[in-house]
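Task 17 of the worksheet. Students: predict the tertiary structure of the chain below and write it out as structure tokens. Keep your answer in the requested format; marks are given for formatting as well as content.
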Amino acid sequence: MAPASIPIRRYSDRAAKFVRQSRPITVRKLRRTRNAGLNIFRDYCGNSSIHGFKVFWVAMCVLSIYGCASLIETVYDKWTRSPVVVTFAEKPTPVHDIPFPAVTICPVTKVKSKVLNFTTVYQHVVRGGNVTDEDYDRFLAMIQVCDFSFNTYLVKQEFDDNLVHLLQEMAPPFEELFLMCIWRGKYVNCSDLFEPTLTERGICYTFNGLGADDVLRKEEYHQDFEHLGEKRSSANWSMEHGYRPNIGLKAYPRRVASPGSTAGLFVGLKSELSDMDYLCGISNQNIRIPMNQALTVSVDPLLITTSENVMSYSPEKRLCFYPHERYLRFFRLYTKGNCELECLSNFTLHMCGCVQFSMPRAANVHICGLAKLACCEEAESILQEQGLGSVDNSTKMLLQSCNCLPACIFLKYKTEISQSHFDWRRLTDTIHLCEKELNNSELSSLAVYYKEAQFISIKRNQLFGLNDFIANCGGILGRKDMKHNFTAVDLKEE
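Model answer:
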């Protein structure tokens, strides 16, 4: 019989042996144990006769595929509907890379009093007084460029094809409007800077405008009179490519090399007090230069360009037209404004059988008289309200054919205006300049210049192309693996 102490020693030895062989549980062992458990669970689900686990995994796979397909469809829809994004350009553009803005000045005095005293003739017409045929024809012509509505007192006149010729004959002489001009810090003859232009406000004068050969299709235009008097060519500049290299500052259209008033345009304007007629003025939609005031206009350009990779998209997707994509009957240069003006002219002709004198027209189209002014105003109102859906089907089809999207590359100018009192009489009396010539006149001044030397342009870019779309799809499909990667980050063993 073994001694009683032997079993006790055997158990204590076994306990000591167990203590010596035990080690701390490490992260690697925990991970191995967890993976083993998952493998056992997968084997069980794959070989078990309980079919609910198989159905669960199949359902999860189907839901995952459906979710990925939905996300891919959203990305594809965004790619097809709005593939273009508008962003700021990578670097600023200097002002010498773009033309100086065109400036059109319309005189407040539309006719000299010795040619036509508008107020006197108006009073005779209203009261039934005697008016000569010549004065009456001139009076009817002047009404079309006045703000006040006089047609309720007048004989109905449907067409007035001689209207523009009368406006040209009655326009005040050029030298009676412009006193002095300074361009880029140098005195220049105003007649070398400004050319006559026909606008909805009558005969005006434009500085740095494009020539008729560059803007209009003369083969489609009537030959009764010229809308644009500028003859200089802009062959050294184009909207798409800018100025030709090494052309210098003598290129047309004119440009400046720096900002500030000394590098811009300054114009001194005058008006004879005897010719002022407050019954016939100009529209408030223009920038009005009050008498005895100095008006300052600082300009901030807005240039929008389009990347070449956007050209492959249709105009409806990129929401703009390149010049070769949109043909205009009367204009060589496509802009949204030219398109809208041509559309308005066509629609006015459709509704009224004539067009207003300042609109583009063919040789056989009449100019609307006073009896048609209400129809012209209604046509313009319908064109402005076409987005409200309040027009009939035939009119809607005609207006939809306009399709005046913005140009893919266009330039416009934002302005900041300030004015102050212009004590010109003290100035002329001090330096004894034109004292006698200005005894019965009022003066005002206009200064136009760039605000900054550079500006940030806006650029249309491709939101994402085919490669980006495929990469997005791959990213969506790989999100599940990414999640696993994030959860399976290796931990250092301690």
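Marker's comment: Residues 480-494 have pLDDT under 50 and may be disordered. Residues 121 and 131 are 7 Å apart (CA to CA).
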